[in-house]
Structures are given as structure tokens and as C-alpha cells.
Amino acid sequence: LYGQSSVRLETPQQEQIISRHIYGHFAEHLGRCIYDGFYVGEKNDSIPHSDGVRKDVIEALKNLNIPNLRWPGGCFADTYHWKDGVGPKAQRPAIVNNWWGGVTEDNSFGTHDFLNMCELLGAEPYLAGNVGSGEVQELADWVQYVNFKGESPMSDWRRKNGRQEPWKVKFWGVGNEAWGCGGNMTADYYTDIYRKYATFMSDWTNGSGLYRIASGANSADYNWTETLMKKIPSGLMKGMGLHHYAVINWDNKGSATQYSEEEYFKTMKSAWFMNELVEKNIAIMDKYDPKGLVDLIVDEWGGWYAVEPGTNPGFLYQQNTMRDAMIAGMTLNIFNNHARRVKMANLAQAVNVLQAVILTEGKNMILTPTYHVMEMYKVHQDAKLIPISLQSTDFEFNQKKIPAVSVSASQDKQGRTHISLVNIDPKKNNKVRVDLGSVKAAKISGRILTAENLRDYNSFKKPTTIKPVVYNKAKVVNGGAIEVDIPAFSVIVLELI
Ligand code: AHR
């Protein structure tokens, strides 16, 4: 049984660049993401590290061209007091991680550790400020501490703590999930709070600019978006957030690996809902900001399931199967195709938490199917979007339907065209005819990510069950078109030169 779809590469009316920041990540003080994930401590002599940060993790993320990393939360951000995380480590006070497992942390991974790690990664830091339980002055001080070159109490303190030059952090979140763990605020109340905080977060960068990001809506809360867009001047807000997770049911999320076809369908439906969310948010933004001064920042997304059996329920540790590869491929196609407004996104989360790209266990590290999708798609970073029109057959379950195929395309600076195609149908191949329009295809190469079974994953015993391999079955057909036969639950990225 085959699905049959068609896609046409269009000529753009206006050039759009797919911001590399769409391929961003998120690292919260949550479970084993920071401690025992990224950071194993300076004194660790069994795992190779650089100032306590795992070298294998750094190399793997560099290989993704990781563009940015959001920290320290999440919900944790609105409990975090940055001043407790600088200065001599032995003198730092502890913090109880109230949101995630109630564990006591020693604050040994703080501002310097994070920002220096971003330098190692070649990623731009995205700091989420504490608005919920913090003070305006505390956040204003943080900006001055990390960004001010001249003499001031905060920059002098930074130098005393060992860092001469400012880090010039551009991306700043003004709170997180202000409608929930960030303070249970109403949209109106948060709007006023936002304006106040943003005002005192001075731009100390000497002109390179502070990019303030508002805590955005919880999934389909369009009133939140509407209120922020109506009431916050664009000069104070460069980005507006949006959080949406692919989840079956918040009260019964289901296993990450042992899921039924119905659960698979429901997860994919929830992931596909991102398309509607992005389009409806953009429509509201276009109404209040026709010049496009404010960007849409999807600073949390990904699949969320029950934790792995036997692990701490507060640590959100889950395995990652081909279902996750499907979420990643489809969602990144959605973001690419809405590159006009979506300028940043952060997959939740980078290491050992939720839809992680990397899992660690002692000395060992594995790359998940999601990692491989991110790696295959990195060719789209900062490339020119090629708009598409797509007719896809449906993936149907119990008379409910979602499109089986998603596609996005771009042209990089060397003139190479890349087309990423995803078929989420768990049973049927899909034959996709790609009408190339004005794109030439003298040579076609490609890679595919698939597996024998939908529920396959990379484990510490079998770390390479799922990995991309060469795909050379794209056929040139009449009239400037190619045909791609995408196997069930597969991601293909083609290169045309
Ligand atoms: O990513 C896990 C949590 O999900 C974050 O801390 C929070 O912002 C969201 O609810």
C-alpha cells in the first residue's frame, strides 16, 4: 500500500532566511540535564571534561552547529538567584530544586560555567531571567554583570570572579511560563510586569543590542498572545515566546517506547498542531505588528511521555524512538516554512531530559534519533527558504486524519538545494513527486533515517541501531521533477546541485 503525494518548489516572492536559531536547544536545572549530564564536575577523573563539562557532549553538540542554548530554565529559572552561582564554589549557598525532584543543588554550575560552556560550544547563550520570585534589580544586575565592559559594581565583581571581558549576551527571557510556574499571572498583569523588567534591563553591549523575549502563550492560549502584542511596545520586546509539547494526555502520557498505534497517532496529531499554533500566532502578530518587528520564539517544544520505569518522576528522563524522529522532522519543517516570523526555537531538552538529543550513563553517551534529525537538517541553518506547495495523503486512524508527509526546502550559500521530507505514516510508504520549478538537479544525493520498527531506539547496549544512511533512490522523472519513495516512518534529506 502506497500513499501518493506531490510537492512543488515555488519561487519566493520575498527572500526569507531560515534563522539558524530555529535549531536551538534548552538546558534546564532539571534531573540529569546539567548535573550528571553536561556537567560532571572539575574533579571528575573518569570522564574527559573541560572545566567539568563533558567533552563528548560538547563535540556532539558542535557537530549539530548548535546555534543557541537556553538556561537555567524552564520553571527553575523563576526560582534561580544568579548571585548564588558566582564566586568561589565552596562558598556558594545550596538551592533546593523545588520544581524538579526536590533535590538539593550546590550551585557549582553557575553563570560563568554556563557562559564559558557556550563559548566552547560556539553557541549563543539565551538566559532566562527570574521574574516570578526575583526582583527587578536582581535581573538588571545580571545583565550588567555579564555584559558591561566599563567599571561598575557588577562588572568589577565579574572581573574579581575571573572574567575580564563581558560575554555580550544578546538573548534574554523575561521570566518563563508566567501564566503557570513562573507566577500564575494573568496576561494583563504579566504585560505590566514585563514592561517594568524590560525597562531596567539596560543594553550594556555597546550597541550590539539586547534581544528581550517575553514569556509566551501556553499552547493555544491566543488571548495571551493578543494581550502581549497589544500592550507591549515593540521597542521593549524583540521576541515573543510560545510553548507547546506533543503530548497524548497530561494525566496519562504513555510510555516513551511501548506505545500503541493509537498513542502514536495522538502524539503525531499533537505535534502537527504546532502548524496551526504557529499560523494563528503569526496572524495575531501580523495584526498588531505588520512591519514584523517582533519575532515568534518557540522556546520549548518536543515530545513528553512518562519517565523511564524506575527513574525519578521529577527528572523527566525518557527514551527516544522513531516517533521522536518524526516529531523532530515534522516540527522543524513547520518552523522552516514559517521562517518569516519564527526566528528561534528550543527543543526541550538537550541532555537526559524529555526529547533529548543526547543521553548519558556514566562514561557512555548515546545520540538519539532526534539528534540525527537535527544533524541531517543543519543544512537549512541560515539558508534561503524555498517556499513549497504540498498535497499530501493522510495518515488516518479511527477516521481521524493528519497529513502523512511534511516537506521543507532551502538553498544554501553555495547554491545547493536541500529538501527534507518526512513520512509519519507507520505502515505505508509514500511516493512523493517533487516538481522542482526553477531548481536544477544535475546531481542528487541524500540520506535517510529510518528503522526496522517504529519503536526502535538507541540504547547504551546498542547505541547505533538508528543512524542516517545513504539514500540514492530519488529518481528524475519527466518535466523537471523527481520522485522520492519515502518508507513508512522515515526522514530523508536530499541535496541537489
Ligand atoms: O521543559 C520542562 C518544563 O516544561 C519547563 O521547566 C517548563 O517551562 C515547561 O512547563
Automatic annotation (TrEMBL):
<feature type="domain" description="Alpha-L-arabinofuranosidase C-terminal">
    <location>
        <begin position="299"/>
        <end position="490"/>
    </location>
</feature>
<dbReference type="Pfam" id="PF06964">
    <property type="entry name" value="Alpha-L-AF_C"/>
</dbReference>
<dbReference type="GO" id="GO:0046373">
    <property type="term" value="P:L-arabinose metabolic process"/>
</dbReference>
<dbReference type="Pfam" id="PF22848">
    <property type="entry name" value="ASD1_dom"/>
</dbReference>
<comment type="subunit">
    <text>Homohexamer; trimer of dimers.</text>
</comment>
<dbReference type="GO" id="GO:0000272">
    <property type="term" value="P:polysaccharide catabolic process"/>
</dbReference>
<dbReference type="InterPro" id="IPR010720">
    <property type="entry name" value="Alpha-L-AF_C"/>
</dbReference>
<comment type="similarity">
    <text>Belongs to the glycosyl hydrolase 51 family.</text>
</comment>
<dbReference type="InterPro" id="IPR055235">
    <property type="entry name" value="ASD1_cat"/>
</dbReference>
<dbReference type="InterPro" id="IPR013780">
    <property type="entry name" value="Glyco_hydro_b"/>
</dbReference>
<keyword id="KW-0378">Hydrolase</keyword>
<keyword id="KW-0119">Carbohydrate metabolism</keyword>
<dbReference type="InterPro" id="IPR017853">
    <property type="entry name" value="GH"/>
</dbReference>
<keyword id="KW-0326">Glycosidase</keyword>
<dbReference type="GO" id="GO:0046556">
    <property type="term" value="F:alpha-L-arabinofuranosidase activity"/>
</dbReference>
<protein>
    <recommendedName>
        <fullName>non-reducing end alpha-L-arabinofuranosidase</fullName>
        <ecNumber>3.2.1.55</ecNumber>
    </recommendedName>
</protein>
